Amino acid sequence: MTRLAGRALRVTILVGESDTWHHRPLSSEIVHRAHEAGLAGASVFRGIEGFGASSLIHTSRLLSLSEDLPVAILIVDTEERVRAFLPELDELVTEGLVILDDCEVVRYASRETTG
Hints:
Blueprint: E1 6-16, E2 20-21, E3 24-25, H1 26-36, E4 42-46, E5 49-50, E6 58-59, E7 70-77, H2 79-92, E8 97-105
Antiparallel strand pairs: 1-7, 1-8, 2-3, 4-7, 5-6
Helix pairs in contact: 1-2
């Protein structure tokens, strides 16, 4: 298990739900590559409304259902490991936003399986 405590770097990737990489959802491709790279963790969150560089508002409201809702992918690890992963994101994210934030990991734990 990856150990993570104290200072860390969070990368947030904001893309559209319909964005793909070789016919696969882009968010899934990013999560799988982060996992293969051994990063501490990644999560995908589906937004209910938003707009970006296109200035087009995407919403989940019933009267204006969008097929391209905003998606946020969050990855947290040490600065060194996150920065080493950035070239992957440069290849994958052709439209969207990539943000880096300093953060502090207070707790990082998993459920231990007993057998």
